[in-house]
């Protein structure tokens, strides 16, 4: 049940962010739920492979390259989900940064209550 609530909260965050960021759009709340599910699947299967492949450059950049990997995951999600559009790599990077930040805030608030 906790996973479903987490997915719904993340879908709400994705929907709100897509309405505020000019380079990111989502067709509706149903599409944002699909985006969250696809993001979860990509984070489970694709993200570890990309992190292993890019380990040397991640070490050289002191971990900052992981932001690039997150943006790539967002762009892959936009490729797979029809109702989700990201204009450029920079919007994907900004979207992933804000999404991670807001998710950690919401997660921290829910853990305290």
UniProtKB/TrEMBL annotation:
Coiled-coil stretches noted in the UniProt entry, renumbered to this chain: none
UniProt cross-references to Pfam families, sorted A to Z: Phage_holin_4_2
Record's keyword terms, sorted: Membrane, Transmembrane, Transmembrane helix
Transmembrane portions of the chain: 28-50, 57-82, 88-109
Name of the molecule in the record: Phage holin family protein
Keyword presence, Transcription: no
